[in-house]
Amino acid sequence: MALTAPIGIALNPHPTAANTVDDLLDRARFVQRAGIDRVWFAQRFDFDSLSVAAAVGAAVPGLHIGTSVVPINPRHPLVVASQAQTAHAASHRRFTLGLGLGARALEEPAFGVPTDRPIRRLREYLTVLRSVLTTGTVDFTGETLTAAPPLPAAVAGGDGPDIVVAAMGPQALAVSGELADGIVPFLAGPRALAGDIVPRVEKAARAAGRPRPRVIAGVPVVVTADPGRARAEAAERMSFYDAIPSYRSVLEREGVATAAELAVIGTEAEVEAQLRRYVDAGATELLITQTDLGGDEDERATWRFLGALGGITG
């Protein structure tokens, strides 16, 4: 039987916004009116994505809210658990916590903390989160962290949000399949998804006796009549990913030389056809990113088209 993969939008504030939170609220309301029922917020060095998720979840009823993604360094899982439960309660149980291992080149200079042993830290981080989010407490001492709150850590109405991980490497996929509810791979094209990423995470989930994981594929998309402009912008803005080892590895598995090659840019029909390839490759949801590559007018047109589309049937 055919299944439909829901579509969500990654929202960032407009560069000219006078107030970041007000602008993100306006954007969330716009995409909801366009027919999109889920939005995602990335954690950067400016606004706090978990706080924004809670604000949007409370102010825009009916939207599914997620973070894509919150790096686990240098945030302690007890702090993230309290923020995640708050966002889940504020959105009336429509929140998904997206986590990432982070990028050493950015985090070590910025925070002055080591980022070694990422897989061990991910395993322990997920273990702590799973306990707090399902039982309201935890007593854990591991190799990379300790979590033993002296008081209850539960938030009424906020228990049990899904946890997804920006996992693409073999070890991260194994841990995520075992301990998380899904993955949110970005710049993993259809070939990498079908040939490697989806089979690995599903195998790990089966071995752990867990349900089939969510596979939320992050895809840069622009519907435009001027693809040259959007592709030039993609080449400039997405070159950052070409030098990060985890992204370099998944690009090689896809058989492309640069991240910008995975941007889906073109007419409505061309975009829909390319998105269907992701669903056919095993994506259960689509997270549409970088819709601003073609400018404000193309971004709004992209949102309207995706809202009218509703989802991709595979």
UniProtKB/TrEMBL annotation:
List its EC numbers: 1.-.-.-
Q: Which InterPro entries match?
A: F420-G6PD/mer (IPR050564), Lucif-like_OxRdtase_MSMEG_4879 (IPR019910), Luciferase-like_dom (IPR011251), Luciferase-like_sf (IPR036661)
CDD domains recorded: Tetrahydromethanopterin_reductase (cd01097)
Q: Which SUPFAM superfamilies match?
A: Bacterial luciferase-like (SSF51679)
User: Is Transmembrane one of the keywords UniProt gives this record?
Assistant: no
The lineage's top-level taxon is: Bacteria
Recorded hits in Pfam families, A to Z, give: Bac_luciferase
Principal EC category: oxidoreductase
Gene Ontology MF annotations:
oxidoreductase activity
For this protein, the parts annotated as crossing the membrane are none
> Taking every annotated instance into account, which residue ranges of this chain make up the domain Luciferase-like?
13-284
| Alphabetical keyword list | Oxidoreductase
- Keyword Oxidoreductase included in the entry's annotation: yes
Coiled-coil annotated spans: none
- List, alphabetically, the NCBIfam families matched: F420_MSMEG_4879
Q: Report the protein name in the record.
A: TIGR03564 family F420-dependent LLM class oxidoreductase
Taxonomic lineage is:
Bacteria, Bacillati, Actinomycetota, Actinomycetes, Mycobacteriales
